[in-house]
Amino acid sequence: MVNRKVLDPETSPGAAFGQRLRQLRDERGWTQDELGERIGCTGTHISAVETGRRPPTSRFAAGADRAFGTGDRFQRMVSALQNSALLDGFPEYAKQEVRATEIRLFELGIVPGLLQTPEYAAAIATGAVRRGAITEQQADERLSHLAERQASLVRTPPPFVYAVLDESCIRRVVGGADAMAAQLSKLVAFAEQPNTVLQVAPFGLGERRSFDLPITLLTLPDRSHIAYSESAQQGRLERDLRFVQPMLTAYHQLQAEAASQAASVAMIEQARKGTS
User: Judging by beta carbons within 10 Å of its beta carbon (0-12, 13-18, 19+), is residue 127 exposed, middle or buried?
Assistant: First the structure.
């Protein structure tokens, strides 16, 4: 089939679900419309689930199990997907992050995960558990993955990391005064490393701030670029240069508008004094 999207089940639980759905449909010789009739949806819906553009629901999984006679296999896959602490799309990003030669971060409200102290990260996870957003087991999974990501930065040669933090990241107290003071100290130490640049985008930028949502841009060993962004429910990895290049341009504009590293460190030091 021309232009048929290649599915990699290793990238995410959603991709594994879509790949398995397509495999069984192909084995039976069904079109997407024919499978849709058996499940009770459109062929367009089947296509969206197979390619990861739409997450499968429990009802969809039950219909797939009935159509294929697979017991509760698809229902168990959806349960695992829904119970995962990682957003669909994030595992694929994480595989690229450990290869990146350059990492560009922009964050709002909280310090980026790669720059968090264990206490700060634990406070974020505990807050999510208290809100009922995740379980304690999922919180542990998140913290474990974060520790692995942070450890991967200590490699030879290390990636060059650019970080632009909205001022809200250093003003919002997370985990109490002591934890926040330690987190701000870590940011100062981060800025002192030879392979890093840290800047704060002050509130005064107003409409001149390039992004309204967090964004991560990676430069890979072959000098290609990818972008990663998240909504509340899903992560998205973008490889198409037509979309990535404008994000890179916007990031460079943001760096030009943000405070210099020296001024940013001074802001962070001032904020740290206010928490102590």
Answer: middle
Write out pLDDT tens, residues 137-163.
Answer: 888 888 988 998 999 899 999 999 999
Can you give 243-268 as a three-state secondary structure string? HHHHHHHHHHHHHHHCCCHHHHHHHH
Examine the domain organization and report whether 57 and 100 are in the same domain.
no
- Is pTM beyond 0.85? Reply is no
Neighbour-count burial for 72-108, b at 16+ CB within 10 Å, e otherwise: eebbebbeebeebbbbbbbbbbbebbeebeebbbbbb
18 vs 96: CA distance, rounded Å: 21
Among 21-25, 132-136, 221-225, 229-233, name the one with the lowest average pLDDT. Answer: 229-233
**159 and 224 share a domain?**
yes
Regarding whether 159 and 34 lie in a shared domain, the answer is: no
φ, ψ for residue 230, nearest 5 deg: -135, 145
